[in-house]
Amino acid sequence: MPINENDLELFLESTSILNSSSQNSIDKTTSNAELSNIEHSTLLIPQPPLLKTGTTLSELKTQEGNDYCNHDSINETEEGGKTDSIKQQEKNDDAFEKMHSNNNNRSCNKNNSYFNPMLQSPTRMPQRYNNYDEYMENKIFQQNKNDQKLIAEYEKQFNKTYPQIFKNTNIYINGYTNPTRLQLHKLIVLHGGKFSHYLTSKRNVTHIIATNLTSKKKIEFRKYRVVQPEWIMQSIEANKLLKWQDYALLLNDTNINNTTDIKTLVTKDSTKKPHLDCNHPDFLASFFKNSRLHHLTTWKLELQNKHMKSNPVGAHHNRIKKIIYYIDFDCFFATVSGLKHNENSSLPIAVSHGQGNSDIASCNYAARSFGIKNGMWVSRAKQLCSTLKILPYEFDSYRKISETFYELLYDKFDTVIPLSVDEGVFIDYPEDIDYKGISEKCMDIRNLLSTKTKCTVSIGVSNTLVLSTLCLKSAKPNGFKIFLPHNTEKEAVAKFVGSFQLTDLPNIGHKTADKINELYSPSSIITLADLQSNLSSLSSFNKLNKLGGKLSRKIILYLKGEDDIDNISKINTPFNYFRKKSLSVDINWGIRFQTIEQVYNFIDRVVARLASQLKSINMASSQYTIKLARCKANSPIEPPKYLGMGLCDITSKTGRFPAHTNENYIMSPEIKQSFRKLYIQAPISSLRGISITLSNLKTNNDRDIGSMLDRKTNNTLDNFPRLHPPLPHDVPLTMSNTENADQMVTVTPLLPSNDNNNNNNNNNNNRRSIEKRKSRSPAREFFNNYHKKKNQERAKHHFSTEIDENALKELPLEMQKEIQREYAVINLVNSTKRSALEAPKIIPKKKLESICCFNPPIPFQKLLNPKEITARLDTWILQNIERGPRTDDALLLVQYLRRLVKFNKKSMLLYIVDHLEEQIDYYRSYYRSASDDPQTSSNHHQMPDGILQWEKLLVLKILPLRESKNRA
DNA sequence: TGTGTGTGGTAGC
DNA sequence: AATCGCTACCACACACA
Predict the structure, then answer these.
(1) pLDDT of A149-170, one tens digit each?
(2) Which nucleotide has its C1' atom closest to residue A334's CA?
């Protein structure tokens, strides 16, 4: 159905349909709520207080049915009419409880509450906030704004001002009260008090209202002023602030009772923001933000992208020598955190999150002297040294110092290879070895870094990477070691190497060391000299081979101080050695699920992250591995580490995508399917870890599309509140062009319906066929079913296979390319048999890839990044929310979305439409709750016209597009 | 004999 | 309150044709 300007204009201007219907439902709800509330207030309050100076409860006529204080609460148009106010109140309280409690009951039975629009209200995020704090801040801001509106409303309505009895108080209500929380809320706000919806340390709550407390809460609240609701009522009656002590609920804490002034009270840290469990949309971000290991891996990648250089000047020339500097900070995290906290570095220090079963990321040498090691749990370390000081992570500082480190050294060497945030290999290729020069260079570097970063580094210098590593080991801490043997000095090298421990060698960790010791038992292999002496006879030499051919050969070379092929290529061709081959996300902490849907949601989120990472590096993957950690049968339900994985069985499964892809909607179903295969017959609650790896990566060769659009210049948000500036260069996206495109490319080949396919089998094995059908990915569906289409002439003609050259030329270049591509796909599909598609070898791989990999992105106002697009749309909506969208802007948006449909950009379409729905819904409920006051029987002037127009745009034009996505 | 899959080890703090 | 046990890469054993 083509859309045109008049069409849109008409629908935006007419106010009939939505206006009346939504209005009706609101009216009905309000009146019901009103009625029941009057009843409610008289019935439930034993002694209706006569409030001479303040407000009466009946004057309030609270409408719990309308979500005044919780404007994104349950949809009232469906619930309000049939629910009485008490239930409604409970519901609100439920929602409220959910909002600030950190329990694991967030999920409802059927679905993940975070994603069910009806149930997720407590955690719905109307905008994409960067973090939970931002979200909360915004929420609190909105709530305060609502309070202000309320006051204005009442003052206008009753034509009086309310005495500011509760000025300078900040009140939080806990649990069920009488009068209800909402009634109290209004009373407090009207009389000048501040009302806190949450009990966070930032809000500085002065009083808590409660009628009874659980024993746990009694302890938790013992430092607060906990007061009974009568305090509010009688204070209002007395028209002054009565002594709260007379109404105190908890009488045991004398300290607080003595304080009479109402200032802010130090709230307990324990009531901080709720913890994010793994079902929270922000869990991944919050986890990664705090994970040291995640930081380490990401940093390595970033630093290599930024600071690696390879310039092996005549590295293979005989006369050119190679000097390898292995530079490494001493106990990096511990040193930096120690500096940040002004700790004395001679005292034992360790960096960790927690106190008990928390990993020590790094400890200084003072701590090591007690036997404390990195990776040890704090509890054990404290046993070894009770005075151990635990410092928090300072990720920003680590990264900053690392940046300085590489910047300072970059120009000093021919080759720079970052290996970690604090550790790198730096190589010079001099013609002659100048021992004095080398040691001076070491000292210079150490001095330079010490003054610039206040940290000490150690340096190992040699002519092979192994020897450099070993030199570094002996140089630590805070020193440097140069060992540059001549070719003839084999014995000296062997002696040097022999003085180290087994695990000092690269690629030998504790497991391999144990294995070696087992091989040679009963003689214990502690030092490399032990190993060297054991290798003299052939039989014992052969023992080493049990480690595996590759590793044993490596070790033999290392024992002679020589590099193996790995090390050599690492040094000589670092860009090749470190080229990206896989991409993965591993989560083995905080994984606690109750339902399979939660797992699916989680996988969706992980895959979405991976997909966007892939896109950002312009790559696609054709193979995935999903790895699960399940707690072992006999191990305790909860491991010692809080939310840890404990002892687990680990299983994995690899699978392939139908072709190289970086699309969310292709990858996610495939991976979930593998998850189902892998996770058989076990309670979902036993899942402790999930890891998803994408491999077989391929770079997108078709760079021109991406580079044609200069992404860097696209961030400016000028010309607002207009959605698109009225500049000539934006004109190409006009009606006629789009409509032409519409005629040219009829439909992108989408999934044919499965119904026909399955009819035959249904009788035989119904369950199985459904199972089979369900487990297919959309992409595979398409490939598998395509041939059927081909056999139907009608379906074939559905695709127009010729391009209208003239029409094409009028389109912008990007679009021309897109369309040509689309035609290439259609033609290829038309000419390909199913068997060929299933056996990719028969088709040239390149052709196959062009089908579902690297479909060029569709720009919106030159933006490609979904987040940028939604950000722009958000601004647009916000600035036009009260007066409605401009017709041409709305048109532009709808056209864009239609193109997404057309080019089968499902994930993008879903993302944007969902986002728009969320946004508009948010504003609608905001204005509704603000204007929905029973005192004003007509809501018409309260609700801005604009919001109705937005609603109409959404409901009539945008949401249908989402539904059309599955239409062939 | 080659190919693919699942498992397990290592590195950084 | 606790706690943030990642991630890229290689090598091997084994299964299968």
Answers:
(1) 777 777 777 777 888 888 888 8
(2) B13
